[in-house]
């Protein structure tokens, strides 16, 4: 027996990590008015010292429940030989094995706590393989042959939208030009937008200051949280618009390419504004509310209603179309779809709470979305994400992953690179969410270049870029970490006194 055949996953560690973002208002929106960004963090370990890191994101209470589920899922990988795991087909088998547990499946299936817990474990397994190969995760996948890509992808329940044979054809077509795209990516980076300027809990002065800072960082796409108070939203949107549309404020910022602005309601300086209501409205309420924000000329409205309501999203999109609230032409050049891509077609974005590929299949089939916002932990890891990338490419809908929280920003740059290199072949109209919180806790945090674009992860040892410093974990593990024991009560009292934190 070769030495490698003896290497197997021997143990795992699950940690409940929580960060006190509720004390600063970071991450707040119309639905989530108090968030403590949290991670159910798992470390897989082999008997020869290899590790794989994965996390799934929550916003505080309940993270312990997710940790319990992560333990249940991770325990099933103990004893797996790396020789069986470390291949595209091996990863495909691992995913089917984890998702096919005859008992855990009952508490999903493929949704909720058990699904996001599975994401942490699946992502950890991929991270371990990428580290083993000494390649960042995106590179590991981008170097797959089309056959390997298909072997790693789950197609169960979606073959009515895309079959493995169709996927193979699509991937083979995209092999051409891959090297040129990679060179372009390395020189330019991947386009990004910022959400950090307009959290719900921020006062106007902070919004204005952060907007100016984002312009200085090179950003020309900005997103604001809306949905709790229309007057407040109109005021804050006008405030942001007054800054981002002012040529003096934007002097010195790199000029965006015309192709990157097509149909996005860009202002005179090439700035684009998007709005996100985090599921707060009923369907008709969404239509009436968003019409009142027309003057701000948003590109898209994100998560207007319940994430499971596919037909509701389709109805909102259809009803907003005549008002030109957002835009159209969200289709990559040369790809046809069953709806016209005229300039006045409003854009609707959702997906961060779409809990599995079947939900995306329906959103796409019902022509309910213009922008597909996959989440790296809501879907059960890479295997399921590849399936959604393929469906979106087939339907001509650009993928702009959800990021933020703790760790999501680290993950998504890998996913957008895979999409650009292997699947959609375009990044001209895509923008990837960027949120500038909690990066200091990661060994390989995401970074932005002077154009406001994501830099491409290039450290061969970083895997899926989710490794954290041991000191950070020791401080923020809940409830006995040093921060929670020594500092939290004092900082909480100060935030209450300053009127930032509501008990
Ligand atoms: Mg959102």
UniProtKB/TrEMBL annotation:
GO BP term (any one):
amino acid catabolic process
Q: Which residues cross the membrane?
A: none
Q: Signal sequence: where? A: none
Q: Which cofactor does it need?
A: Mg(2+)
Any Pfam family matching the protein: MR_MLE_C
Q: Which keywords does the record carry? A: Magnesium, Metal-binding
Domain Mandelate racemase/muconate lactonizing enzyme C-terminal, first and last residues per copy? 204-323
Please name the GO terms that the record assigns under molecular function. Answer: hydro-lyase activity; magnesium ion binding
What is the protein name stated in its UniProt record?
Mandelate racemase/muconate lactonizing enzyme C-terminal domain-containing protein
């Amino acid at each position: 027996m070769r030495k490698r055949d003896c290497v197997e996953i021997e143990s795992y560690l699950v940690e409940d990590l929580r960060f006190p973002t509720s004390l600063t208002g970071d991450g707040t929106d119309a639905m989530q008015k108090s968030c403590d960004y949290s991670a159910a963090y798992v470390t897989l370990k082999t008997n020869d010292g290899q590790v794989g890191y994965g996390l799934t994101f929550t916003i505080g209470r309940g993270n312990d429940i997710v940790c319990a589920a992560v333990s249940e899922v991770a325990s099933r990988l103990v004893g797996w030989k790396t020789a069986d795991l470390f291949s595209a087909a091996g990863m495909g088998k691992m995913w089917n094995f984890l998702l096919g547990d005859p008992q855990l499946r009952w508490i999903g299936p493929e949704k909720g706590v058990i699904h996001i817990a599975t994401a942490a474990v699946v992502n950890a397994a991929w991270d371990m393989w990428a580290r083993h190969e000494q390649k960042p995760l995106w590179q590991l996948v981008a170097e797959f042959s089309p056959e390997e890509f298909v072997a790693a992808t789950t197609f169960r329940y979606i073959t009515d939208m895309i079959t493995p044979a169709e996927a193979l054809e699509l991937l083979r077509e995209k092999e051409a030009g891959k090297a040129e795209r990679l060179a372009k990516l390395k020189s330019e980076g991947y386009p990004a937008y910022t959400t950090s300027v307009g959290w719900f809990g921020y006062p106007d002065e902070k919004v204005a200051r952060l907007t100016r800072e984002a312009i200085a960082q090179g950003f020309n796409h900005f997103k604001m949280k809306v949905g709790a108070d229309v007057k407040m939203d109109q005021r804050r949107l006008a405030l942001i618009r007054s800054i981002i549309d002012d040529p003096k404020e934007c002097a010195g910022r790199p000029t965006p390419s015309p192709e990157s602005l097509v149909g996005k309601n860009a202002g005179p300086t090439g700035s684009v504004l998007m709005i996100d209501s985090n599921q707060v409205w009923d369907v008709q309420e969404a239509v009436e509310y968003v019409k009142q924000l027309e003057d701000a000329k948003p590109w898209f409205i994100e998560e207007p209603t319940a994430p499971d309501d596919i037909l509701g999203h389709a109805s909102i999109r259809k009803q907003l179309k005549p008002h030109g609230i957002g835009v159209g032409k969200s289709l990559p050049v040369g790809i046809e779809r069953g709806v016209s891509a005229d300039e006045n077609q409003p854009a609707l974005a959702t997906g961060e709470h779409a809990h599995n590929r079947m939900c995306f299949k329906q959103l796409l089939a019902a022509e309910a979305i213009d922008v597909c916002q996959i989440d790296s932990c809501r879907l059960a890891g890479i295997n399921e994400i590849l399936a959604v990338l393929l469906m979106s490419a087939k339907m001509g809908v650009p993928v702009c992953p959800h990021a933020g929280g703790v760790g999501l920003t680290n993950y998504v740059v890998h996913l957008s690179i895979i999409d650009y290199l292997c699947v959609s072949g375009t990044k001209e109209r895509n923008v990837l969410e960027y949120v500038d919180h909690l990066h200091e806790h990661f060994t390989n945090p995401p970074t932005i270049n002077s154009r406001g674009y994501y830099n491409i992860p290039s450290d061969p040892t970083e895997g899926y870029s989710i490794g954290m410093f041991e000191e950070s974990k020791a401080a923020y593990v809940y409830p006995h970490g040093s921060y929670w024991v020594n500092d939290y009560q004092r900082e909480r009292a100060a935030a209450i006194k300053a009127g930032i934190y509501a008990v």
